[in-house]
Amino acid sequence: MSSAHTHAIDPLRDLKLIEDQVDLCVAQANAFFETKFTPPSCNFRQKGRAAGTAHLQKNEVRFNPFMYQQDPASFIETVVPHEVAHIIIFQIYGSKVKPHGKEWQAMMMKVYGLKPDRTHQFDTPLPKESYEYHCSCECYQFSKQRHNRAQKGVEYICKICKTTLQYIKTNKNS
Ligand SMILES: [Zn+2]
Ligand SMILES: [Zn+2]
């Protein structure tokens, strides 16, 4: 069974829940604007740090299963309307307006009764690898980019003990 904080995704069942919410959000927009918008297709292909993305030209919304599983109910309540609002605003204005501009914000508040937050509250995945460095007082995790710079000779110095950080080992996070 699922624990309090995660639940295993059943792709068909969970995608259906998301599709139902997408349909509901489009229906609410139809009622509000007294028109008929084209519902976007949706899938679980979003990866990385975004909870979802709206692909306006393709009329497609991608959702992040890693974040969905952390809290399906709040994901459905917040992320789905956020992305659908991008799709609707594009169908009304094309690319003449900013993605999180006043039109999108007004839609979030008036149509969905939500705070127009640009960002989500979900945990983001750990990078696959991090690089551990030590000074004489602390332990630091470097990103691959930073590690590469250090290996090319860029010196990173601890603000507290003023010693140069030394590479110790690579950590795999999976
Ligand atoms: Zn957005
Ligand atoms: Zn130090």
UniProtKB/TrEMBL annotation:
InterPro entries: SprT-like_domain. Pfam families: SprT-like. Residues 20-168 form the SprT-like domain. GO terms for molecular function: metallopeptidase activity. Keywords: Hydrolase, Metalloprotease, Protease. The keyword Protease applies. This is SprT family zinc-dependent metalloprotease.
